[in-house]
Amino acid sequence: SQDYHFGLEDHEGISELFDCD
Amino acid sequence: PPQTPIRAAMNSIQQLRGGLTSASDQPSGNLIVYFKNCTVDPSEEITKRVGQLGQIFCQKFAEAVGQRCEGLGKTRFTLGVQLHYKVMESMLKSEEKRLSVQNFSKLLNNATFHTSLLASALEVVLATYVGGSLKNGGSESPETDLCFPWILDVFQLHAFDFYKVIESFIKAEPTLKHDMIEHLGRCEHQIMESIAWKADSPLFELLRQSREEGPGEQAEPPAT
């Protein structure tokens, strides 16, 4: 996954992206 | 031996299947614990949804590839379900560690999350099987018709929702091969360049909401 640009910060995850607690 | 396109495709398929030998097409014990910890237990809805999406997938697969290939559709779908449960468990473990909570009721009762996650897993499976012929510009296999964004139409999924799971999917599945990560990166690019800007995209509503929320970060000028 070295060539993939990870845009999420460490404090963000799938829960936030689907508007969850 | 020299790496031929066919050999490369066969290796990718073997690796995918090898990584799923111990995976089930049913939720694992750990996943069931996560489901039971929810305020509203999502188990029944999840199983029902997987069944419904399976029927739709197999029907559309047979329409695209040929009715005699119905069995292949079922096999692809089962692999996708296995992968999606594996990734779901890994995602929840990461979220548990990050947020120090065990109740993921909102996330696990979100139908769009589950459909997007299953669609991502199926995209990986379909792209693995098509792999060799696509990379070499060939289109002999009718399965090339199933390449992205075919799965979005099948599940009637907004591209923007699919986009949201890609990064977490890659992080949660460390055995994903380099070419598959590249493929998912291309899907992301395609979504942001064009597919997410269709008239019914939820992106427009989000932009409208963010404008109404008042002066926050200024958007870049359109030309940029």
Mean pLDDT of chain B: 89
> Which structural class best describes the helix and strand composition of chain B?
mainly alpha
Low-confidence stretches of chain A: none
Helicity range of chain B: 55-70%
**Total helix count of chain B?**
10
Measured between the Cα atoms of the first and last residue of chain A, the distance is: 28 Å
Q: Would you tell me the overall average pLDDT of chain A?
A: 77
Shape of chain B: globular
Our estimate of the beta-strand percent of chain A is under 5%
**Fraction in beta strands of chain B:** under 5%
Overall number of strands of chain A:
0
Verbal overview:
The complex is a heterodimer of chains A (21) and B (224). Chain A has one helix spanning 14-17. Chain A is mostly helical. The mean pLDDT of chain A is 77. Chain B is 68% helix and 0% strand. Chain B has helices at residues 5-19, 29-36, 43-65, 70-99, 105-108, 111-135, 150-155, 159-172, 178-193, 202-212. In chain B, helix 4 packs across helix 8. Chain B starts with a helix and ends in a 12-residue tail after the last helix. The model of chain B has no long low-confidence stretch (mean pLDDT 89).
List the helices and strands and how they pair.
The complex is a heterodimer of chains A (21) and B (224).
Chain A: H1 14-17
Chain B: H1 5-19, H2 29-36, H3 43-65, H4 70-99, H5 105-108, H6 111-135, H7 150-155, H8 159-172, H9 178-193, H10 202-212
